[in-house]
Amino acid sequence: MYEIEHRAVISEEKYEDLKIALDDQAKSLGEDDKEVAYYIFPNRLLKVVRNISKGTGVLSLKLTALGQGSAFKELEIPFPVEDFDTMNAICKEISVPEQVIVGTQKRSNYEYHGVEIALKWSEDWGYHVEFERLISDLAGKDAADAEILEVAKHFSVTVMSEEEVASFARAIRERKTTDGKD
Q1: Which residues are within 8 A (CB) of 73 and not within 5 positions of it... i.e. 6 or more apart?
Q2: Torsion angle of alpha carbons 51, 56, 62, 67, nearest 10°?
């Protein structure tokens, strides 16, 4: 499976307005708060996730880095949530990422016209929204991109270009390195 993703950084006011609109117009998929360790590599992203809301854990490998296109092949392996610290210890021992960033993400998930919408807040990204469609074959990427952009437009959200995503992610990584928080 491939995730087709687009995202936007939004103001707190837009976040609140969007939450009202989504609560009214979209199907709520519930809260999805997470603690995540991001192991950042030049061309991929490994995540160890503790889903606080659901009491689950997952190891996730995205085979594309942020800012390198909207299509992400993602491989996931669930694990017992009580093994979160052990899974992080294993990842630290067997991998040599460029950087590790750990943070908590407040998240509410919705579905609107076949597009999953995650309304999020995190220390690093601030208020933001992610639009996503799953496809089995990259032949459907253009159609999925178009569907996502139409849904974003419906909710008056301008998604970031890949260059903007890459620049924003780079700024976070630089700030974390400067702050000594990686």
Answers
A1: 1, 2, 3, 62, 63, 64
A2: -10
- Tokens, residue 15: 């976040």
In degrees, rounded to 5, the angle at the alpha carbon of residue 171 between the alpha carbons of residues 170 and 173 is 65
131: β partners: 6, 117
Tokens coding 60: 């996730």
**Closest by alpha carbon to 182, among 9, 37, 34?**
37
Phi then psi for residue 94, to 5 deg, are -105, 0
**Tens digit of each residue's pLDDT, the chain (182 residues):** 899 999 999 999 999 999 999 999 999 999 999 999 999 888 888 999 999 999 999 999 988 877 777 887 889 999 999 999 999 999 988 888 888 888 999 999 999 999 999 999 999 999 999 999 999 999 999 999 999 999 999 999 999 998 999 899 888 888 877 655 54
28 bridge partner residues: 110
pTM of the model: 0.87
β 2-9/27-31 pair status: unpaired
Residue carrying structure tokens 């400067």: 178
Distance (Å, rounded) from C-alpha 57 to C-alpha 167? 29
Enter the tokens of residue 170.
């780079």
